[in-house]
Amino acid sequence: VKVKIPFGNKCLDAIFSVPEKKSTYGVILTHGAGGDMNFPHLVSLAAYLASHGVLCLRFTCKGLNIAYRTKAFKTVVEYLKLSDDYKLSGVFLAGRSMGSRAAASVIRHLSQEDDDDFIQGLVCLSYPLHRPKLQSKLRDEDLLFIRCPVLFVSGSADEMCEKQLLEGVASKMKAPKKIHWIDKANHGMAVKGRTTDDVMEEINAQVFSWLRENIELEH
């Protein structure tokens, strides 16, 4: 279902992937610095989640300014929260690369503003912990403030997320967290000798089983 979400004097393009049965939980998903909501990994994950009973709303927000992207993500969260068509008990925020930074930033901001439990957790696909070859400056400030469960899915050869550095940040986080490493994958989740579909199957299954565990823990 295609929708347009009002954002300032513009609209954000978004697509709902709706499960057959009424869904209690949803996932909001967005893309990295390049591309849009039709990035193959996002389309694949949204279809997988919907086929397993989880509503998925993915949206496009161009712009390389993290504050702008965060604001857009927050608008989408409010939109879904107030939606009459889909009454959800809670939502997980998910993003790829820069989109996962925006998601983390939204969760940090919202947790400081209100105490409701609408946001259940965070899924970071290829979290860009640092710039390529610039490992001295870590983008970890939002992660350290988050309290809800966090799943990282990263490539063990990601040039923007060195394995030991992410493990170090995770060990300092207060939130319950899990890291799933895709062996030999780079930042774009490409692995020599494996097809994109094969890698996506691994990612999708990981994300879904983690969501299921966290929904069950709540209830």
At the fourth level of CATH, the homologous superfamily of the domain at 65-217 is Alpha/Beta hydrolase fold, catalytic domain
Radius of gyration: 16 Å
Residue windows where pLDDT falls under 50 for at least 5 positions = none
CATH architecture tag of the domain at 65-217: 3-Layer(aba) Sandwich
State the name of the first-level CATH class of the domain at 65-217.
Alpha Beta
Largest sheet descriptor = 8 strands, mixed
Q: Count every helix, treating DSSP H or I runs of 4 or more residues as helices.
A: 5
Could you give the distance between the termini? 29 Å
Q: What is the ordering of alpha helices and beta strands?
A: EEEHEHEHEEHEH
Spatial order of strands in the largest sheet: 1-2-4-3-5-6-7-8
Protein name: Testis-expressed sequence 30 protein
Pfam families: Abhydrolase_11 (PF20408)
Domain KANL3/Tex30 alpha/beta hydrolase-like: 27-209
Organism: Pygoscelis adeliae
